[in-house]
Amino acid sequence: MANQDSFDLIVIGSGPGGYIAAIRAAQLGMRVACVERAATLGGTCVNVGCIPSKALLDSSERLHAVRNGLGAHGIKVGSVEVDLAAMLARKDKIVKTSTQGIAGLFKKNKVERIIGTARFTAADTVAVSNGSDTRRLTGRRVLIATGSAPVELPGLPFDGQHIVCSTEALSFKEVPQRLLVIGGGAIGLELGSVWNRLGSSVVVVEFMDRIVPGMDRKMGQQLQRALQKQGMTFQLQTGASGAVVESGTVRVTLESQGTTSEAECDVVLVAVGRRAFADGLGAREIGVAFDDHGRIKIDDHYTTSVPGVYAIGDVVAGPMLAHKAEEEGVAAVELMAGQAGHVNYDAVPNVVYTWPEFASVGMTEEQAQSQEVQFNVGSFPFIANGRARCMNETDGGVKILADAKTDRVLGVHILGPNASDLIAEAALAMEFGASAEDIARSVHAHPTLPEAMKEAALAVGQRTLNI
Length: 467
Ligand SMILES: Cc1cc2nc3c(=O)[nH]c(=O)nc-3n(C[C@H](O)[C@H](O)[C@H](O)COP(=O)(O)OP(=O)(O)OC[C@H]3O[C@@H](n4cnc5c(N)ncnc54)[C@H](O)[C@@H]3O)c2cc1C
What we know:
The chain has three domains: 3-150 and 275-343, FAD/NAD(P)-binding domain; 163-272, FAD/NAD(P)-binding domain; 347-460, 2-Layer Sandwich (Enolase-like, domain 1), CATH 3.30.390.30. Helices cover 32% and strands 26% of the residues. It contains 13 helices and 22 strands. α1 (16-27) runs parallel beside α4 and α3 (50-69) runs antiparallel to α4 (84-109). The chain binds flavin-adenine dinucleotide. Flavin-adenine dinucleotide is lined by residues 12-18, 35-38, 43-45, 49-50, 53, 117-118, 145-148, 166, 187, 277, 280-281, 313-314, 320-323, 325, 353. Flavin-adenine dinucleotide binds next to α1, β2, α2, α3 and β4.
C-alpha cells in the first residue's frame, strides 16, 4: 500500500493556479495533494477577488440600469430601493457555491485536500500545520501556487475599517458616504464603480497621468469620461502619502506635482497593486531564488532554481490574472508529465469590468511603437453598430492593430458593452495567428456586437462597410 503521506505532486495553494494544476495532474495519473491554509478552496479569485467583485458589479449594474438606463427604452420605474444585506448575501452564496464546487471537483478527481499552512523542510518535504498538529508530506515534485497579497502604502497601514484593501471593500455593511480610492487600475475602478452605483461619492486618486496604465491610452481616457458621467471624480498625477483617522473621518495627505493637499473621506480603499506572496513558506531556506520584486524565478518549464520545485500564478512574474494562473498550472503539470504544455503570453486577455467594460489582448499602439513594429490600425465605434444602438449602449468601440507587412493581428482593444465576452474572439484569432482579413472575412451574425470586431478588421484594410 502507498505511503499515505507520499505524493507524486504536492500543490501549495488552491487558487485558480493551484486547484486547476491539481486536477490536471490527477487526470494525468499523478497522486496529488493540494494544501490550502484557508478554510475554503479557490484562493483570492474565488473568495475575495474575481467572483465576489463580479457578483457585486452585476448587481450594482442592474441597479444603475434600472435607475438610469430604462427611460430611453420607454420604461418608467417608480422608486427603487437597495437591500445591501441581500446583495451581499447573494454574493456570499455565489462564493460558497464556487468553493464547494472545487471541493467536489477534488473528490471527483481524487485530489487529496489538506487543510493547513505548508512550509518546506526540504526540497521534497513539506510540513503542514493546522494549529493543532503537523503532518509531514513528501512529494516527487512540489508546485508553489501561493498567489499574492495586497500592497500596503507607507503612511496608510490597513486597519480593516477606515483604511482597507479590496477584501473589506467587498463586504462594507453600509454604503460609505465618501470613498477615496487610491489606484486607478482594474480593482480600484471596479470596486469604485460598485460603491458609486450604490450611492458613495467616489474620488479616485492615481499616481500616473492616466487611469488603467498599460491599456490603450485613448480608450482609457474615454473610460474615464464615462465613469465621470456616472459621478466618479478623478485626481491624476496624485499620490497619497499619509492618513489620519479622527472620529470616524479619514484625512488623507495627497501630493501632486510638488503641492500637498488634504482630502477627507469615510473610507480609503488602497488598490495600488498586489505583491507576490510566499511569506512563511520556507522556500528561500531551501534555495528557491526570487527576483527583485519578491517573485519566484522560474524557467520556461516553471521550474524554480531548486530541481523538483515548480511555481506558477501570481507568485511568479507576469500579469496577475486568474486565467494566466490557470493556464500556467495546466502547462506546468503537462510538462512534468512529458507533454507539450505551453502558454502563449502574447494572447492573454485583460479585462476591466467597469461599465462600459474595457478589454484588451496583445500589443497597444504605444507598445508597438516602442518596439518599432510597423502596424496598421482599424477602428469601429459602437455608435455605428446596430445592436449597440438597440441596447442603447453606444459608448466606445473596437480597435485592431495588425502587422503592416503580414496583416497578422498584433492587438485588439475593446471599450464597450460586453467587451469581456467580445475579447474572446480576438484572443482566439491571435492564438491561431489570424490576420485582420481572416476576421474580416468570417461571417458574423447580424445584428450582434461582434460585428464591430469584423468592421474594425475591415477598417485595417480601409474598407469598412457601415461607417
Ligand atoms: C478584488 C479582486 C478582483 C480580481 N478580479 C479578477 C478578475 O476579474 N479576473 C482575473 O483574471 N483576475 C482577477 N483578480 C486576480 C486574481 O484573483 C489572481 O490573479 C488569482 O487569484 C491568482 O491565482 P493564484 O492561484 O496564483 O493565487 P491565489 O488565488 O492568490 O491563491 C493562492 C492560495 O494559496 C494559499 N496559500 C498561500 N500560502 C500558503 C501556504 N504556505 N500554505 C498553504 N496555502 C497557502 C492562499 O491561502 C491562497 O488560497 C482579482 C483580484 C482581486 C483582489
